[in-house]
């Protein structure tokens, strides 16, 4: 039995990691400021005596310090996500994703001398539009917008702290994670949340471009197991891609969900394909995904009521929500 802290544990991925660690019999403290995380995501854990929750920002060191005794593992997932808000308010993203990472690493460095492992959550967005598919960890870094930049800076800081201060840290670059409890906030973002809300409302799916673009959709339970593998391994100071080992078109997703389509303009800075080379993580951590795309989509549909209160996006509202994306990264969209 170990003592674990998960920053951002009330969020989508964090809540699944919390569940997986509790299932293994570990003690889990979730630290979350609930800016995007939801209490609903961790409600079912409240009765578990091994679970605790602290509502706090990761930059609030005084509030966190009293909870750092006997920590074995830290999983750092707390961050601001989404592309458009990062373009509009880059300073907030820097404070959260860069300063917040330094803050939590310094807390651990100064207060947890016996920490066994820290796992940082990085993003495959650091690759931008890569030259090679599947994309290895050695690919050129091409951050296209502030979210991608700040997440990569956080990773660089984590690996630097591992080198300079000898903290046992691994970083996971996540590819297109999906599954139950993915965010339902008012921010236009990940395709699954958009499509499921549209399905509930009997509205057509807003497909970007021609729908032939592909994504390395990776089921959240597999991602949670990757975090645990990265923590339990003796390997340290490494960066790993976390992907499904395959890539699927948006049109294939629509086929599985069932429904009508309306097409909207392609966005600048978005790759036509994301596809992780997972050779390194399979070899060094002996991790492999288990949930097929078809099974994962089936599980999403079984939990579709989670998106009942999510906004239903239309071509017009998406056009308005993404206007800054086009303004800063490319030409303005033209609706047909």
From TrEMBL:
<dbReference type="InterPro" id="IPR036291">
    <property type="entry name" value="NAD(P)-bd_dom_sf"/>
</dbReference>
<dbReference type="InterPro" id="IPR016040">
    <property type="entry name" value="NAD(P)-bd_dom"/>
</dbReference>
<dbReference type="Pfam" id="PF16363">
    <property type="entry name" value="GDP_Man_Dehyd"/>
</dbReference>
<feature type="domain" description="NAD(P)-binding">
    <location>
        <begin position="5"/>
        <end position="300"/>
    </location>
</feature>
<protein>
    <submittedName>
        <fullName>NAD-dependent dehydratase</fullName>
    </submittedName>
</protein>
